[in-house]
Amino acid sequence: MNKLPLAVIGSLLGSTLVLAACQPLEETTVIDAGAGGAPAGGEAAGGVPAGGVPAGGAPAGGTPVGGAPAGGAPVGGAPAGGAPVGGAPVGGAPVGGAPVGGGPVGGGPVPPVACADLPDSLYKTLGCKDGIEAATGAFVGKVLADNRINGYFLNQSVDAGRFVSCLNKFMVAAVDAGGTYSGVTYPGVGNDQVVDAEGCRSMVEAHRGMGVSQQDWNDIVEDLVTTLTELDVSEETINIIAGALAPFAAQTIEDATDTATLYHQLGGKEAIMAVIDGLIANVAIDPKLLSFFTDLNRIPRLKTCLVRQVCAVAGGPCEFGGEVTNEWEPGVTTETQCQTDMQALHLNMMNPDGDVITVADFLALGNALTDSMASLNVPAEQQAAVLGAIVATCPQIVTPAEAGMCP
User: Fold this and answer.
1) Most CB contacts within 10 A, which of 32, 114, 213, 247?
2) The domain that contains 202 carries what CATH number?
3) Is the pTM for the entire model greater than 0.90?
């Protein structure tokens, strides 16, 4: 992949996209660190957990996000509108399809005109509506595979079909200057709506309360640059796209310093995944802790559930217990989600020797987690916050006889 000049990257980092524009209005709340809702703890693999989460369940399969996507538009596959990813050429080879008519230009509707016959513009350069939707589909696939940011999307609250449909509409409207040639508008982009008939929302409304950080958008912009570059879009065109999207940055980013939540202080989902990898490695070398994990085939589920659990209690976007079938989080499906009732999950659990979970076992697990965070240079303040959330579940994890001995 050709490297882009720093000036292009810099201008893109000030831009933003509408990646949550289609979540229902009531589903944009971010969980505060330590708040109720997604309990801390975890799942154990085939017996007794490390931190409290049993691993098991069906392996991940398929890629639908949010269960059965509305309208049947698969995420990362064929985007809404029917333009297959990689189908319509992008980056200068216009698609000959007729743009959508109906947008007011000069006081009247735009008659259908073949893309090749339109005046030169960014919209035409990207292949008009079909080409833009094809590029958007490739971009969505890259975002969903990116562990840095996919925690915002791999949740039951996300309507996958509407998400893709609204993102397509936003990108067409933004690139086409609010519907100059396509007639396509979007709330706040070519019209004054806040929510349109399809349920698509303006940038401000779509991201309100989500706590999107500057780093989140740096990561998403990097995915956009990579997608466009892979589709042979020129550096000059990418720079023009950055200019078209830049005005929306201030409408979406709520955490400009990446410090508003423990989730962002830790470095987001990918950083949490590294912590959990270290925890599992430390458990593997402790014979007593390892004895509670009798089925090592369930370790992938254990990791998925622990990552989502820490993400949730740290104020991140992951919905612990709201997982969906996808190929990037093994061990969970829409039907076999992470178990969140720690007390019911661990009641009467024991290892093959008949040992129950004691406070000493729980503290040993806490030490394994601390060692993992320390090895990754997680600051002491953030280590203490994570441990505080986990320790709060001790009475629900250990044998009832020792629940009163928890720290």
Assistant:
1) 213
2) 1.10.490.10
3) no
